[in-house]
Each structure stands twice: as C-alpha cells, then as structure tokens.
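agent> Task received from the user: take the single chain below, predict its 3D structure, and emit structure tokens. No templates, no multimer pairing.
agent> Plan: (1) validate residues, (2) run structure prediction, (3) serialize to tokens, (4) report one or two observations.
agent> Step 1 OK, no nonstandard residues flagged.
tool_call: predict_structure(input=
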Amino acid sequence: MNVLGRALLHDFTVVVDYPNGEIRLYSPDQSRSVCGLSTSKLLEKDDNILALPIETDGGQMLTLMDTGATYSFIQKKVVTSRNLKTVDDLYRTSAFRIGGRDFGPLEMVVLPIDGAPQIDALVGANFFSRHAVCFDYQGRKVSIFN
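)
tool_result: status=success, residues=146
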C-alpha cells in the first residue's frame, strides 16, 4: 500500500483490518475518530514514501508497511552489518516495538531489497494478519490495534 496506490490512498485515512477481512477508506477529517491515538509517526522519505521507525532486539530500523507483501522482509545488508542471528535465512525478533509498544515477536525473511536501499525492512502479511492498522496519511501517523 505504501508504494502501489499511494497516490490514491494519500487522500484518505485507511484502516487495513486483515483479521476481519476489511479495508476501509475515510475522509482525512475523520482520522482522529477512526484511528484514535497514534502509535507512531510516519517519516517521509525519497519519492514521498512513508516509512515507519521500529525497534527490535537487533536495534532501530526504518521500515515500510507493505500490505501487499506476502511476508515481512529484512535487508540482507542489515543482518550482515549488525551480525544478527538467522536460521535458514529467517531473522526472528523477540521484540518488535512501534512507538514504544511491543508487537513482537516477528519473523522476517532475509534478502536484498534492491528497490528500497534506504529502508531496513518491509513489514508484511505476517504482521497485518494479527493487527488492524490505521494509516492517517495527511497527519503522517499510524495507529495499530491488537
């Protein structure tokens, strides 16, 4: 969602609720009532890409929330440079904190993400299948519900 469709979705507050099988669009002026308190700020990167800062037991990372990704991924260069422990090209965090709240653990496939060199990881379906997420694009905020 952060790449494909971002031009369209930028004009809405979007709730991605995979656990209930729903994606809902709201006008930006409804973001506070729909999203509630934000979990974290979204940071604008190159090409208007909105990135989410997270913290794991492997340190701080800059991620893309990608609702279309079949799984979560971590850059191979991050795993190598931080000497993170992997098993069968999988990195499993014991903690996955967003805005101070722990949503972990989270498993990530290790691979090079050539199209987004400034990003450390992509958060995909294995995260979204457990949490409803509200994107307030106008306010550059994200709220995550258990």
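agent> Step 4: summary for the user.
Helices lie at 6-9, 31-35, 76-81, 125-128.
agent> Done.
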